[in-house]
């Protein structure tokens, strides 16, 4: 059995060059073998800085490299579907940045390609690899504070650059696709299912045409989740403002850095039991600074190598996109939107 999986990267996006590619160089089970960039000079410069041995001037050249096991797709959102399909059809496993696709129908098509190819494909939500989420599942499974009744979260950051993909509605920009996908994915992980119906209020930027302030209520059938995401609010530091609280039958949980950590940062989960008052926790679970991108690269490499590690099927991305589509329709119609059975 191979000891490491060989990775190839399509494009030199910032998420790749600043986060994922350095993480691949740190992950013991990963080998960063190749980079493809349509700007070959930029590709060579990035490859030299990150010690990538092979550089290609087209994505198709990289897909034709028989030594590559896994293709990482950090391209603009509207290109995720096309190049994930091409990589699977070329016999590669795929880790694609979020959102995996722009429509739930595209995810259905990707599922079919995955089945034909027999290869793994995942949506790259690095936060799911952080040990705090394993701790959450442990707490909920223990029935320490009872079953989940509701969840509430927000994510916010200032994105005013007109060239930012988040400000391009045709490219899957806006708060719901970018930040909302984290909130929806997290809620579905907490409740272990997709919502039954959704309702949303969106505030649209008059210049960019994207949703810059979006609030949602998700009905899971007897349980609720609510979130707000904003692309022109909060601070403008290196990370977004994030918060997630979970109400249970006999207590509550609160995360102080639940989602994307672009820099490894110590964080915690606070727990209040039935005797707690106000927002004062009974117990605090602390976590050392952990590089989520290294954890993601290592886990996915080991999965491809055949080791018994966890994975997240892209059917979960289907639920996320179906929810996003429902929220946009709800905002247009001004009423609840039921999510049809897939």
What is the CATH-assigned architecture of the largest domain? 2-Layer Sandwich
The CATH topology of the largest domain is given as Dihydrodipicolinate Reductase, domain 2
* Structural class label: alpha/beta
Radius of gyration: 20 Å
From the spread of the alpha carbons, the general shape counts as globular
> What is the assigned CATH homologous superfamily of the largest domain?
Dihydrodipicolinate Reductase, domain 2
How many extended strands? 15
Adjacency order of strands in the biggest sheet: 14-13-12-11-7-10-9-8-15
The whole-number mean of residue pLDDT values reads 96
Overview of the structural elements:
The protein has helices at residues 14-26, 40-50, 59-63, 80-89, 104-117, 131-142, 175-191, 292-304, 315-333, and strands spanning 5-10, 30-36, 54-56, 70-73, 93-97, 121-124, 148-156, 197-204, 211-219, 224-230, 241-248, 251-255, 267-272, 283-287, 337-338. Strands 14-13-12-11-7-10-9-8-15 form a 9-stranded mixed β-sheet. Strand 5, helix 5 (104-117) and strand 6 (121-124) form a beta-alpha-beta unit. It is 33% helix and 26% strand. The relative contact order is 0.15. The protein contains 9 helices and 15 strands. The mean pLDDT is 96. It is of the alpha/beta class and 342 residues long. Helix 1 crosses helix 8 and helix 7 (175-191) packs across helix 9. The chain folds into 2 domains: 5-127, Rossmann fold; 130-294 and 321-338, Dihydrodipicolinate Reductase, domain 2 (2-Layer Sandwich), CATH 3.30.360.10.
Briefly say what this structure is.
This protein is α/β, with parallel strands linked by helices and 342 residues long.
């Amino acid at each position: 059995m191979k000891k490491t999986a060989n990775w190839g990267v399509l494009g030199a996006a910032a998420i790749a060059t600043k986060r994922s590619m350095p993480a691949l160089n740190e992950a013991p089970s990963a080998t960063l073998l190749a980079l493809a960039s349509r700007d070959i000079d930029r590709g060579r410069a990035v490859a030299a800085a990150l010690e990538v041995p092979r550089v290609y001037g087209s994505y198709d050249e990289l897909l034709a490299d028989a030594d590559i096991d896994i293709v990482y797709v950090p391209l603009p959102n509207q290109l995720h579907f096309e190049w994930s399909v091409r990589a699977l059809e070329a016999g590669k496993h795929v880790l694609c940045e979020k959102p995996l696709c722009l429509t739930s129908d595209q995810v259905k098509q990707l599922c079919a390609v995955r089945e034909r190819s027999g290869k793994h494909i995942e949506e790259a939500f690095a936060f799911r690899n952080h040990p705090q989420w394993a701790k959450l599942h442990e707490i909920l499974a223990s029935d320490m504070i009872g079953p989940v009744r509701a969840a509430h979260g927000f994510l916010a950051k200032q994105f005013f650059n007109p060239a930012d993909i988040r400000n391009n509605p045709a490219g899957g920009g806006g708060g719901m696709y970018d930040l909302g996908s984290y909130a929806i994915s997290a809620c579905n992980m907490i409740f272990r299912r997709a919502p039954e119906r959704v309702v949303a209020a969106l505030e649209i930027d008059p210049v960019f045409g994207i949703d810059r302030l979006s609030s949602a209520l998700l009905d899971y059938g007897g349980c609720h989740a609510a979130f707000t995401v904003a692309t022109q609010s909060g601070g403008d530091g290196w990370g977004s403002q994030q918060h997630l609280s979970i109400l249970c039958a006999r207590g509550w949980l609160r995360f102080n850095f639940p989602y994307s950590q672009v820099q490894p940062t110590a964080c915690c989960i606070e727990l209040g039991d039935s005797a707690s008052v106000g927002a004062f926790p009974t117990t605090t679970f602390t976590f050392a600074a952990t590089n989520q991108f290294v954890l993601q690269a290592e886990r996915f490499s080991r999965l491809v190598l055949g080791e018994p590690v966890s994975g997240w099927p892209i059917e979960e991305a289907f639920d996320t996109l179906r929810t996003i589509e429902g929220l946009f329709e709800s905002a247009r119609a001004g009423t609840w939107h039921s999510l049809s059975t897939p």
